[in-house]
Structure formats: C-alpha cells, structure tokens
Amino acid sequence: MLGKILVRYLSRYKWLLAAVLVFQFASAIATLYLPRLNEDIINKGVAQSDTEYIWRTGLFMLAVSLGQITASVIATYFAARASMSAGRDIRADVFGKVSGFSEREVSQFGAGSLITRNTNDVQQVQMLAMMGATMLVTAPLLAIGGIIFAVQTNIGLSWLIAVSVPLLLIVAGLVVSRMVPLFRSYQGRLDTVNRVMREQLTGVRVVRAFVRERIEEERFRGANTDIMVVGRKVGSLFVLLFPLFMLILNVTVVAVVWFGGIEVNSGTVQVGTIFAFMQYIGQIMGGVIMASFMAIMIPRAAVSAERIGEVLDTESSMERPTNGVTDFPTPGSVAFDGVEFTYPGADSPVLTGISFGAEPGETVAIVGSTGAGKTTLVSLIPRLFDASGGAVFVGGADVREADVESLWATIGLVPQRPFLFTGTVASNLRYGREDATDEELWHALEIAQGRDFVEEMPQGLESRITQGGTNVSGGQRQRLAIARAIVRQPQILVFDDSFSALDLTTDARLRQALWRELPHVTKIVVAQRVSSITDADRIVVLEGGTMVGVGTHAELLETSTTYREIVESQLGVDA
C-alpha cells in the first residue's frame, strides 16, 4: 500500500523528482571526490612541503565543497516541494472521500480516527517521501561508491569494510523488525487519544454538569499513558540503535588507525592515504546509517499508508449514479414506499413497513416516543442513510437513482442538533446559498424569528460565530440553522425536532411565518410538542419503528391510541 500511494501521488511531480535525482547525484559525486583531494594535499603538498600545491588544491577542494553544498540545498528544496505537494494531494483526496461517506462509514471509522488519518498518518507518509527523495540517491552512492573508492585507495584494509557494514545491517534489521508492530499500535492509541479528547471537548457542558471532570481526566490519563508506553518502547529502540551505530563506526575508525599506522610505519602506505580511507569509511557508514534510518521510517509510514488506503478504498454505501435524475417529475413531493432500515450490525430493523407521502406545499408531521425512529426516518430523505428495504422518493424519483447534488439542492435540512461554523452570521447563513443577498438573509432571519437578536449583535450580519455556535444560546443557534435552510430556497424543508429549544410564543410565530411566507414549500416536521403540529396536513405516528397511525390531528384523536396518549400526556404542559 505504501508503494502504491507514493507512486500514485509522487508521479504527478516527476520533473521535480528528476531534478532531485540529478542534484543528489552531483552532490554525492562531489562528496566522494573530496577525500581524494584531501589525500593529494597531504601526500603531495604537506609531505613534500609544496605550499603552492596546497593552496591550489585547497582552493579547488573549497570550490568542490561549495558545489556539493549548493547541489544538496537545491535537491532538498525540490524534494520538499514534491513531498509537501504530494501530502497536500493525499489530504485533499482523503477529505473528498470522507465528504462522500454516509453516516454508516463515518461511524465505522470514527471521527477521531478519520482526523488522525488525514493529519498524522499523512504526515508520516509525507515525511518518508521527503526523506526518501533526499536520501534515495545519496545513501546508495555514498555506500557503494565509498566501498569502491576505499578499495582503490587501500585494498589491504578493505576487510574492515566487509566486517563493519554487514554488522550495521544486522543491527538495523533487528531493530526495524521490532518497530513494525509498535508503530501500528502507536497509531491506534493515537486514535484513542484524539477520540477521548474530542469527546471531552464536545461534551464539556455535560461533563461539568455531572461533575465528571475527575473521571474524564482519568480516562484521558489512561489513553495518554497507553500511547506513552508504546512511545517509550519505540524511543528505547532508537536509544539503542544510534549508540550501536556510533560504536561500530568508532571501532572501525580505531581499527583503521591501528592497522593503517602499522602500514605507514612500514613505509608501504602514505599518511594521506590512511586519512582518505578513514573518510571513505565514514561515508560508507553514513550511507548505511541513512539507509537504516529510511528503513526505520518505512514501517511507520507503511502503517500510516495502510490506514490512509483503508479510507481511500472504502466505497460509500451511498452510491452516486453517474447519470442520475436531475429533473424531478413532481418537484417538492416526498414519498415512503414500504421502507425498512437496519443499522449495520444491528439484530433487528429500526424502521419497518413505512409508507406515506407528502404533496408539494403540504406539511407532514412525524411524532412518536423516544427511540421510535423519527430521526432515522427523515435522514433517509437527503440520503444520510440508504433504506435497507423499500424506497424513498423525492420529486417522484427514487433517491438512490437521483443525482446527489441535484437531490440535496431541493432539500433544506435543519438537524436535531444544529451546528454552526466558525465565521460570521452571514457566512453561516450563506452556507445555504453563497450568492444570497443581505436582504435575503434578513428575510430568512425574519421568518426564523432571529432578526431581533442578530440586529442587537454589535456587527449585525458580520458578528462573529465561534465553532459550533458556542457563543450564542441554544435557541439562537436553532433559529440561525432554520434561517440557513430557508436561505437555500429549497422545495422541501425537513425539521428534525428543530423547535425544541424555542419557547411556545416564538415557536408559534415561527410556524405561522413559515406557513405564510413559504406556502409552496413541502415541510416535513419531526416534533415532540403536539401543539406544534396540530394544524399539519398529515401526522404520522411512529411506535417501535412502525407506523401506528396517520391522519389529521382530529382524525388521530379518534383512531390512534398512541397519539391520544401523547396528546393527553402534554395537555397540562402545552397542548
């Protein structure tokens, strides 16, 4: 999976990678040439007391060094551009894929895990691409080229290379083999930390209301400790690896000095040659260490790539037809025909045999006890889920055969828990329709009974809204969400218990404004308060996921025991 992802995304920047290879090759050749110049300075300059040769060769050596540095910097720049661009593309594709997921896939992965995969996991792959591009040529050239030049310099000491290099590779292999399962475990625990943190931030009010801070702290401490334990094991391997590398390198250098000194003393080898051989030993070791470092990064990046691939390879259960219906034969109509729905992994369906319809401009209310399936039912209209059985029709077309963008354009959804985005009142309302004018925004706010409190804000429509709308009250947040759906100018408005945070007076005014200003719009209303839907054209009563009644308020009082019990339970409250 790692290779597949790297090839897929880095191939888009092959010219940058070609430049990296060229400049890395030049940098490596210059690096290998420097010890030979150093050998000549010592043997032909210092030993012969030839100052002019020392200056001439030294200046040339300086020029080669500057060229090596320049080539290395340019190669690193191009490598950074290619890897960062690939990382950007991976994040964009993961985000686009997740955006197309239905609620089923989001629940399957978990929000915390999806965030980790699009941030930390992509970063691991991106870092490997960066390091791989910069070391891909340098490491093998330094190792192989260093061996060739070292043998040419002094074949008598080459046996030291035959001992030290395999020893380095054995150490690296043993460490890397133990890191693979640790990295996989680390990423999983990172998911857990993100999930716990996200839950605590999202539910901070509940945590404080039930005085659960200490328990939540313990829960986070447990997740944090788990990732620390795995991280410590990884760190221990790193702590073991590099000292072993340096030990092997230093022992090899000492051996070169020892055995090389014997040859110098016997007069068979010059001092400069031993210095050059030592430098080549260092370059060989450096190349092997670079390759080992890459080998260490590969397992973690491979785990991350596998997790990214799982997201990219997961097909949404919400199929998008390539030539879906875009022109709906009966605009504004909604119909359920024998609909059944079962959540993944559930033993029994939460909805069974649901059949009813709403004609254009009608108001259809859905009532029932908690857990009756009301929210699940209306979630099938915009295809947040797909029905397990039967069919849902919008505008006369089966939603599974409709073009998704066209389907969503006909629907304005106000969810049970309205969410506002970081920005302004205007930017949140224009989330429904980007080209909406200020007059249209104010009109939508007026219908949603939100104009008064927005006008009282310091900057009106340009007043700031924090993430989630936490700087406004629940009722204000709900009215802004309703206004946002109205701004969309949909043919169908779906209200999923969207009036629960409103007082009775505001609720009544809002419903009157909706009915008066948007008589042509079909309204599907999930309600808890019977008083909110007594004037609906049709009321659907759910119990245990099945329809136990459908009709007007007056008809249901006569025919539905369940509906009559709901009404009687609220008579002393708001009926």
From TrEMBL:
Residues 334-569 form the ABC transporter domain. SUPFAM superfamilies: ABC transporter transmembrane region, P-loop containing nucleoside triphosphate hydrolases. Keywords: ATP-binding, Cell membrane, Membrane, Nucleotide-binding, Transmembrane, Transmembrane helix, Transport. InterPro entries: AAA+_ATPase, ABC1_TM_dom, ABC1_TM_sf, ABC_transporter-like_ATP-bd, ABC_transporter-like_CS, P-loop_NTPase, Type_1_exporter. It holds the Pfam family ABC_membrane. SMART domains: AAA. The keyword Transmembrane helix applies. GO terms for molecular function: ABC-type oligopeptide transporter activity; ATP binding; ATP hydrolysis activity. Gene3D superfamilies: ABC transporter type 1, transmembrane domain (1.20.1560.10), P-loop containing nucleotide triphosphate hydrolases (3.40.50.300). GO terms for cellular component: plasma membrane. It is a multi-pass membrane protein. CDD domains: ABC_6TM_Tm287_like. Residues 18-300 form the ABC transmembrane type-1 domain. Its main location: membrane. The keyword RNA-binding does not apply. It is found in: Cell membrane. The chain crosses the membrane at residues 12-33, 53-80, 127-151, 157-176, 237-260, 280-298. This is Putative ABC transporter ATP-binding protein. It comes from Microbacterium foliorum.
